[in-house]
Design goal:
7 strands, 45% strand, 28% helix, alpha+beta, single chain, 159 residues, Naphthalene 1,2-dioxygenase Alpha Subunit, Chain A, domain 1
């Protein structure tokens, strides 16, 4: 299942980007959104910034998925950011839900937009399980969509 999200910030593109690659901001944002056991590692190179975010998140799991997805699931999120001051900025994202047969990948693009910033986020969720794989992908896709919207709102408020 593939989701595309677009969000417009009134903040300058470099401020949005800086919040995306700031370890302290990421940790605070994740905690504010309900995560626990948060560990963020960040590595800056000349051409990119690589971030790994390990955390447990609460998921309101429907009964049919409870044997696959835990109510507190550990996520390992990897991001690779590239771009230049003033934008655009590009991010490749992969997310592993520990002990679940899911493949979550995505991209994010930050672009200057009428005095602010436009963000386009594309997320694709795939599940390898027969019979219920599509339903599980749809559930995780909808859960991811809500999480992305919460992150956008948090950044709107605190950047």
């Amino acid at each position: 299942m593939k989701h595309t999200h677009t969000h417009i910030y009134e903040h300058h593109i470099d401020n949005i980007y800086n919040s995306c690659v700031n370890k302290g901001f990421i940790e605070t944002k994740m905690a504010a959104l309900g995560a626990r056991h948060i560990e963020v590692t960040l590595e800056e190179k000349t051409d990119c910034v690589t971030i790994e975010i390990n955390r447990e998140i609460p998921i309101d799991v429907p009964g049919m998925f409870k044997s696959i997805i835990k109510p507190w699931s550990k996520l390992i999120q990897k991001e690779v950011w590239k771009g230049v001051r003033g934008g655009p900025y590009y991010c490749q994202i992969s997310i592993e839900v520990q002990n679940a047969p899911l493949d979550i990948r995505g991209t994010m693009k930050l672009m200057a937009h009428e005095g602010g910033t436009a963000v386009v986020s594309i997320t694709e969720v795939n599940c390898t399980l027969p019979f219920i794989g599509k339903a599980l992908s749809n559930f995780i896709g909808e859960t991811s969509k809500k999480a992305i919207e919460q992150e956008f709102a948090y950044i709107d408020e605190y950047v």
